[in-house]
Amino acid sequence: MDEMDNLSMEELLQEAQRLVRQLSDEQLREVMEECRLNGSETA
Known about the structure:
Blueprint: H1 2-42
């Protein structure tokens, strides 16, 4: 039982990390685009 619980926890952590990476990637792209727009406007 403990081993199965550990495996499921590891799987959940891996899935969570994947989601976080996807979100962070999308957020980074949005931030970079916003920075470009803001930079060009203020420059």
